[in-house]
Specification:
Strand content: 25-35%
Keywords: Phosphoprotein, Phosphotransferase system, Sugar transport, Transferase, Transport
GO cellular component, one term: membrane
Number of strands: 6
Shape: globular
Order of helices and strands: EHHEEEEEHHH
CATH architecture: 3-Layer(aba) Sandwich
Distance between the termini: 5 Å
Number of domains: 1
Oligomer: single chain
CATH class: Alpha Beta
CATH topology: Mannitol-specific EII, Chain A
Protein name: PTS sugar transporter subunit IIA
Mean pLDDT: 90
Pfam family, one: PTS_EIIA_2
Number of helices: 5
Helix content: 40-55%
Largest sheet: 6 strands, mixed
Low-confidence stretches: none
GO biological process, one term: phosphoenolpyruvate-dependent sugar phosphotransferase system
Amino acid sequence: MIVSEEQLFLNQHLSTKEEVLAFIANKAAELGITTSSAQVERDLWAREKEYATAVQQLIAIPHAKTEAISEAKLLFIRLTEPIDWESKEGFKAQAIFAILVPASEASQQHLKILSSVAVNLLEEAFQEQILTINTERELMDYLKDNLEGELI
């Protein structure tokens, strides 16, 4: 299972992209996804330096292909307020899908997860729901109904 309820974090008070990427790395360590939060954070930043991962207004999909994890995982963070994601387009981010994949299976697994999330983000109803659902349980149920089955 790539995403579970314990990997969903609603109403987080983070105010910068730096805080968000550190939060992702630290939660990955707390959840046993990685033994090196520092490496995960470095790999997230390496991808951000190539191109900011804000894909549209209010949505970002930071991702890392890293040796620091052994199994692909998806974390979701929703912030209490949108923050500047430092993208060329000037997008802010409030809903963040963080994709972490092992470097060994990066291309296939990474693209499958990214594609499933991106396809759903084309739907306004999906965007609205991820920004307004009240509890992690409700969000997990919604993701089960909308993301490809093998991701849940």
